[in-house]
Amino acid sequence: MYAFLIDDNKQIIGYQPTTVELIKAEVERPIPPHHPKPGIDYVEYWDDVEKKIVLREVARPLTESEKTAQSINDINQLLADLIAGGEQR
After folding, report:
1. Total structural domains in the chain?
2. Are strands 2-6 and 12-17 parallel, antiparallel or unpaired?
3. Does residue 51 contact residue 69 with C-beta atoms inside 8 Å?
4. Which structural domain, as residue segments, surrounds residue 59?
């Protein structure tokens, strides 16, 4: 027996063998965050209790561009702290 993942156009986009009892369900797919967290992948899982697809956050190593962005944000925060400290004097 196989489990199939079908997109909105009724095209099969994935399948895998399974021994799990299958149910037919038409559910909305969750929308991933517009601005994902660095070092996080969002993976779809079937929630058997709620009978819907949910997103789970899965940690992964930062990409080079995420490391660069994080460094820039850290520098900007340090500059903002220095400027704010100078204004308080």
Report:
1. 1
2. antiparallel
3. no
4. 2-87
